[in-house]
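Session log. Operator J.P. requested a structure for one protein chain; no other inputs attached. Running the standard single-chain path with token output.
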Amino acid sequence: SSGINAEYGGKLSEVGAKTISHVNNVAKLKERLESIQKGLPWIESLDVTVDLKIPADELKSIISDNFKQEMLFYKQNQVGVQQSIARLHSMGIATARPEDYFAEMVKSDDHMRKVKEKLVSKQLVMERTEKVSKMRKMKKLGKKVQQEVLKKRADDKKAMLDSVKRVRKGHQPDDDFEINTEPEPSTSQKGGGINRKRKAKDAKYGSGGKKKFARKNTAESYKDVSSFSSRIHSKPKRSAKNDKRMGNKSQRPGKSKRAGMKNKQASRK
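Structure written below.
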């Protein structure tokens, strides 16, 4: 380290701390530059030197302001890119990628296929694990709901039996326990309409109930003559018109007359 400091003008203090002295050794810099130069064409290095020609007074303010320094670097790079593009165009080298440009991937198709299979397998494992955990939660929830339902059924059954016991003992039934003594309407009738077949059978055979003395007259039925019709219930009078309707058929003689006729026939013989 002492040789390097001596070469570039560096000095060491008495306490061993390094002190730097700014020395512009042009001969040494040129010598080092020649040692690293390889003589390659410009297209291989693409190095550009830009001189913005900034005044000295403005340069002093830039040195103490970081934002101005960054803007200076940006402008310098922008000018260098413009000069490089113009130089490349002069050399006949394209600087824009064509629309149908196809760049081969660094990784092969087989490698990408393996990567895809690995990702798909991981996704399937995650989905399967999530599904299993969800099924476990649903199973636990189903058991809990089933237990609650069974408990509710048992409580309802117990409450109903207690109400039945109170009713049998003669106590007033609770509001939630009512015995319906009215017959429920038949559910076999479609749309709640009249079952015509049932109605016809009831009219023909009756609708059940007491059959004894069903046709016995009562005081009300005895006095009711609204269904009596003289035309239907009275015997027709003897007349020529009625005889014609009977087909002029002679009426049979009585018993004594038939006996006299029989005796006359016997005496003639």
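Operator note: The two ends are 192 Å apart (CA to CA).
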